[in-house]
């Protein structure tokens, strides 16, 4: 079974974020030391002394004028901004935003404003634990998407969500899926503002993104960053599902994600949700240590996958798991990457495509396969019934096939 290669967290029962209150440490920048000034060169003798005197006189006058002008402008600027001595302030008060402040609909501030009405704080409580996470409204009649690990520790507990209006409303758990780490709640409300969906398949590294949620109990928090990478194979909380390791192809971002952000939306610069905030790497050997937090490496579930899973949960109460009908060798490490098959189920997608034990899949849906976890994550990203072009190696030769994915029969 594959395991996480580095520390990660979820908002599970024993995580520290519920009571963590680690004070921030301010690090002062050292004061730079000015370089020593070189002594002036000795003046030349004779006729050059008169010329130098004239130059010095002109320079002195220019310096005095410049100094007086700079001092006057500096005093006016300081006085206008309430800085300086105890004399009367010069100028008039102006509380309007500076001209450079852009809060137009297409600005980052506009993107946050567009998405905030759909943001909720999720509370899950039973006799053992209180869990707080984030979520977002996906329909006017009260369906809400969050992470499975936000609610899974209290499967028989009480759920509520805090709306943008400040109203806290009782919620019902419709269903959840451990492989994708998606859960759906429902509240008895209508006329809500659903979030606008983006397209996670059209993202590129460097795209600006904003993480929304309730990190460390701070409601309606927005943090800004970029897409750091795509298709990172990350373990799902339910890492071992029926003996099969579970991974998802995550969006990596440096937008600050902390405990409590789980389940909240990762939005693009237009305010459209393109991911569901899910986990971080803390940089701590003990990822459960109190105070562990964001170091700029966070992950989100691509919204195209989350939307498909959430729709199935809303429709049937459960989600299907996408499979290829073959097991994958966890110990295989190919020189050029790839995932080695250990066997193919008779009548399954892999067998129908002509694959057999020992084949090494090197390209899946047009993307090179790094290893077994990468292939598992890419399979999970697709929906049952999707037809995917693959390349594989058999006995040193390169082959191609069309693979029709299926749903797990379990």
Automatic annotation (TrEMBL):
EC number: 3.4.21.-
Keyword field: Hydrolase, Membrane, Protease, Transmembrane, Transmembrane helix
Transmembrane segments: 52-77
GO-annotated molecular function: serine-type endopeptidase activity
All residue ranges annotated as the PDZ domain in the record: 322-396
Root EC class: hydrolase
InterPro entries cross-referenced by the UniProt entry: Chloro_Bact_Ser_Proteases, PDZ, PDZ_sf, Peptidase_S1_PA, Peptidase_S1C
GO biological process, one term: proteolysis
Identification of the protein by name: Putative serine protease PepD
Organism: Longispora fulva
């Amino acid at each position: 079974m594959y395991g996480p290669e580095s520390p990660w967290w979820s908002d599970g029962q024993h995580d520290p974020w519920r009571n963590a209150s680690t004070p921030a440490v301010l690090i002062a920048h050292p004061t730079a030391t000015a370089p020593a000034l070189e002594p002036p060169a000795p003046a030349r003798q004779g006729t050059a002394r008169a010329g130098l005197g004239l130059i010095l006189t002109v320079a002195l006058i220019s310096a005095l004028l410049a100094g007086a002008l700079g001092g006057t402008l500096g005093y006016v600027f300081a006085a206008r901004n309430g800085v300086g001595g105890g004399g009367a302030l010069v100028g008039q008060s102006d509380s309007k935003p500076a001209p450079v402040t852009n809060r137009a609909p297409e600005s980052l501030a506009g993107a946050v404003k567009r998405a905030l009405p759909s943001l909720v704080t999720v509370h899950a409580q039973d006799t053992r634990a209180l869990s707080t996470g984030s979520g977002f409204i996906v329909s006017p009649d009260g369906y809400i998407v969050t992470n499975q690990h936000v609610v899974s520790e209290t499967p028989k507990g009480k759920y509520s969500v805090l709306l943008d209006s400040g109203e806290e409303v009782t919620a019902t758990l419709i269903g959840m899926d451990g492989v994708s780490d998606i859960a759906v709640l429902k509240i008895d409300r209508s006329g809500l503002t659903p979030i606008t969906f983006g397209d996670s398949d059209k993202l590129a590294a460097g795209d600006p993104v904003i993480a929304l949620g309730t990190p460390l109990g701070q409601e309606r928090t927005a943090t800004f960053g970029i897409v750091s990478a795509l298709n990172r194979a990350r373990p799902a909380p339910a890492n071992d599902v029926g003996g099969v390791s579970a991974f998802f192809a995550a969006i990596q971002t440096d937008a600050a994600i902390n405990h409590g952000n789980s389940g909240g939306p990762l939005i693009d610069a237009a305010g459209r949700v393109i991911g569901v905030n899910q986990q971080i790497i803390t940089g701590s050997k003990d990822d459960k240590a109190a105070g562990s937090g964001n170091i700029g490496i966070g992950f989100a579930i691509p919204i195209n996958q989350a939307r498909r899973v959430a729709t199935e949960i809303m429709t049937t109460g459960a989600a299907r798991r996408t499979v290829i009908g073959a097991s994958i060798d966890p110990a295989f490490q190919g020189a050029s990457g790839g995932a080695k098959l250990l066997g193919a189920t008779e009548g399954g997608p892999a067998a129908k495509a002509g694959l057999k034990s020992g084949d090494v899949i090197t390209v899946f849906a047009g993307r090179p396969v790094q290893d077994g976890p990468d292939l598992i994550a890419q399979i999970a990203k697709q929906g049952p019934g999707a037809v995917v072009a693959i390349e594989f190696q058999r006995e040193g030769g390169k082959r191609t096939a069309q693979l029709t994915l299926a749903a797990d029969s379990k």
